[in-house]
UniProtKB/TrEMBL annotation:
<feature type="domain" description="Partial AB-hydrolase lipase">
    <location>
        <begin position="30"/>
        <end position="82"/>
    </location>
</feature>
<dbReference type="Pfam" id="PF04083">
    <property type="entry name" value="Abhydro_lipase"/>
</dbReference>
<feature type="active site" description="Nucleophile">
    <location>
        <position position="158"/>
    </location>
</feature>
<dbReference type="InterPro" id="IPR025483">
    <property type="entry name" value="Lipase_euk"/>
</dbReference>
<dbReference type="GO" id="GO:0016788">
    <property type="term" value="F:hydrolase activity, acting on ester bonds"/>
</dbReference>
<keyword id="KW-0442">Lipid degradation</keyword>
<dbReference type="InterPro" id="IPR029058">
    <property type="entry name" value="AB_hydrolase_fold"/>
</dbReference>
<feature type="active site" description="Charge relay system">
    <location>
        <position position="355"/>
    </location>
</feature>
<keyword id="KW-0378">Hydrolase</keyword>
<feature type="signal peptide">
    <location>
        <begin position="1"/>
        <end position="22"/>
    </location>
</feature>
<keyword id="KW-0732">Signal</keyword>
<protein>
    <recommendedName>
        <fullName>Lipase</fullName>
    </recommendedName>
</protein>
<keyword id="KW-0443">Lipid metabolism</keyword>
<feature type="active site" description="Charge relay system">
    <location>
        <position position="326"/>
    </location>
</feature>
<dbReference type="InterPro" id="IPR006693">
    <property type="entry name" value="AB_hydrolase_lipase"/>
</dbReference>
<comment type="similarity">
    <text>Belongs to the AB hydrolase superfamily. Lipase family.</text>
</comment>
<dbReference type="GO" id="GO:0016042">
    <property type="term" value="P:lipid catabolic process"/>
</dbReference>
Length: 384
């Protein structure tokens, strides 16, 4: 069943949109781009809402599909907050592409299930394994059916890249459905992570109980109200946020900080961090470790098996971007992944470029997006 909203004329007064409560529909519609909302159900019952920018008034007749997958704690909104001048979905639509914005289970566009209630911890028993094994295949199949295309272009940021690797490792047939791949700071190997705050979170999180992880609501109702309300406190909280998710940046669009603080967590499972913690501690890009007894029942071995990265073999080689300043993905870990999947590695040498800058930097178009869009345009010498 499709719920479609095209040309959200009621949101013409875009400056009145409340970013704390806005969603992808309003973030696209406020700039007078056509936008659609679609709902689909994964094979294991999670109901996801995804969004489409089918065209742009500036775009040509190109109808190839580009699918974007967000990072951890985020949603499809992340790609849109920067607006038409530097938001990747808008730029791709202007370049003539049919743009789809994916979402993962647990975030504001994935808090539904055919049988499970998100108020129950059972709903949250998933990691990025399920996002890659179930959510991405369901979304890609849906998009290709709706557009009547055989394959699409994929762009993933952070955990979006993790899920992509899981999907192809678990379901190699999806290589045939990918034309080009662009991974922005994909998290797979992370033993050399430099963020002291995040490594502390990972160490503690490994012992936490199952359930929903909601640092955003915690911050909003306690830390923000007590500390972040003061002038000094605002700068302190901003520094903590940026340190946690990749390092302080001189490139971040400062006008977006209020929106980022409101949307710092779109809702996700504690098991996502627990899974990253396992990779961080063991150095193995492996499936979720349930403990010896459950591992034997689920996997047939006491140790969780590695993801078969040799299965990651899309029609075109993977383009992968990394930097020296990203405190979540070190250059060493990025290079390890790049070698394992034979990716074309793009070492971003811009000073102080961090994990969030791939989406929110003021100069992201010049540093990343022009090259990314051109690589998609060049696929099989498609006419511009």
């Amino acid at each position: 069943m499709i719920s479609r909203v095209v040309l959200l004329l009621l949101l013409a007064a875009g400056s009145l949109v409340d970013f704390a409560t806005s969603n992808s529909l309003s973030l696209v519609g406020m700039h007078n781009y056509p936008v659609e909302q679609h709902r689909l159900t994964t094979r294991d019952g999670y109901v996801l809402t995804i969004f489409r920018i089918p065209y742009s008034q500036r775009g040509g007749g190109r109808k190839q599909v580009v699918f974007l997958q967000h990072g951890i704690t985020g949603s499809s909104d992340d790609w849109l907050l920067s607006g038409p001048n530097s938001g990747l979905p808008f730029l791709l639509a202007d370049a003539g592409f049919d743009v789809w914005l994916g979402n993962s289970r647990g975030n504001e566009n994935g808090r539904a299930h055919k049988r499970l209630d998100p108020k129950n911890d059972t709903f949250w028993k998933f990691s990025w394994h399920e996002i890659g094994a179930y959510d991405l295949p369901a979304q890609i199949d849906y998009v290709l059916r709706k557009t009547e295309q055989a394959a699409l272009h994929f762009v993933g940021h952070s955990q979006g890249g993790t899920a992509y690797l899981v999907m192809l490792a678990e379901h190699p047939k999806y290589n045939e459905k990918i034309m080009t791949t662009n991974l922005l700071a994909p998290l797979a190997f992370c033993s050399n992570m430099e963020s002291k705050l995040m490594t502390l979170v990972l160490k503690v999180n490994d012992y936490m109980v199952e359930g929903e992880y909601t640092p955003g609501s915690l911050t909003q109702h306690t830390l923000s109200e007590v500390v972040c309300s003061t002038m000094i406190g605002k700068h302190l909280c901003q520094d903590m946020l940026f340190t946690l998710i990749g390092g302080k940046s001189t490139h971040i669009n400062r006008t977006l900080i209020p929106q980022l603080e409101n949307k710092e967590s779109s809702g996700f499972s504690n098991r996502l961090l627990k899974h990253y913690a396992q990779v961080f501690k063991t150095g193995r890009f492996a499936k979720y470790d349930h403990g010896n007894a459950t591992n034997l029942r689920v996997y047939g071995t006491s140790r969780p098996p590695l993801y078969e990265l040799s299965n990651v073999a899309p029609e075109e080689r993977v383009e992968m971007f990394y930097t020296d300043n990203d405190q979540l993905l070190s250059a060493e870990d990025a290079q390890t992944l790049g070698q394992r999947i034979a990716a074309t590695q793009h070492h971003v040498t811009v000073r102080n470029w961090n994990h969030l800058d791939y989406v929110y930097a003021t100069d992201v178009v010049q540093v990343i997006y022009r090259q990314l869009i051109q690589s998609i345009r060049d696929y099989k010498a498609s006419p511009i």
